[in-house]
Amino acid sequence: MSVKKKESDWSVSEIKAAVDAYLKMLALEKKGQKFVKTVVNLALREAALPTRTKGSVEFRMQNISTVLMKMDREFIKGYKPARNVGSNVEQAIRAVLTEKGIQPGDPKAPTADEETLERRAAVLQKQNITEPPKGIKKPKRAASSRTVYVRDPEVRAWVRNEAAGHCDGCKKPAPFQKLGLPYLEVHHVKPLAEKGSDQISNAVALCPNCHRRCHYSNDREEFTALLYEQVARLIPE
């Protein structure tokens, strides 16, 4: 009976095999194409990783997500970043990613991925941006199975900081915190789907209740008009 290797014993070739498989799945996810993680996991264990368990391969994929997150790059949604990654493992994964041309991302770069956008905006919020960002006048639709648009994390961060922890609609404090910051949802007064801009002149920070009110309430038009009155920077588009 073969003895399973310890997690710390992963060789460079094994790390490369895991990263290769991960990046192929990530490419499919970005295109909106489906894949089955368990099938990929099994294929790896039948070929490049014969001494590894299903759980071991799964955990390594989560490690890769962690490293990509730290590099400010998108990662596979189904592989939640592991909380603890050994420094040697992290360095090995990062080295393979770098070898494949994947460099740290720009935290200010626009993105259509909601998790990446939220993470980048949180980092920028904590930097207390003082200069109003330009934003994106004509946001582009991203190549996805869903209707999503490329948005500017600086706009999200700036609008939230301007709200100072209070809803731009009801003026009440944010209901809770997320990532160490008051939780407010950034709402585009003229929807992006209706050719609205992703700029501070078309965005407000709302509590979840007021955000839903903008979309579903019987008085949503009146409430939107109130936002224009209350937030001086807003410009009708």
Would you kindly provide a brief summary of this structure?
With 237 residues, the chain is mainly α.
Provide keyphrases for this structure:
single chain, 237 residues, mainly alpha, DNA Binding (I), subunit A, 2 domains, two-stranded antiparallel sheet, 43% helix, disordered N terminus
Number of domains: 2
Largest sheet: 2 strands, antiparallel
Unreliable segments (pLDDT under 50, ≥5 consecutive)?
Answer: 1-6
Number of helices: 8
Shape: elongated
Mean pLDDT: 92
- Major sheet: order of its strands? 1-2
> What string, H for helix and E for strand, traces the elements in order?
HHHHHHEEEEHH
Estimate what percentage of residues fall within beta strands.
5-15%
Rg is 21 Å
Distance between the amino and carboxyl termini: 70 Å
Approximate helicity band: 40-55%
Please identify the structural class as seen in this structure.
Answer: mainly alpha
- Overall strand count: 4
Protein name: HNH endonuclease
GO molecular function: endonuclease activity; nucleic acid binding; zinc ion binding
Region (Disordered): 124-145
InterPro entries: HNH, HNH_nuc
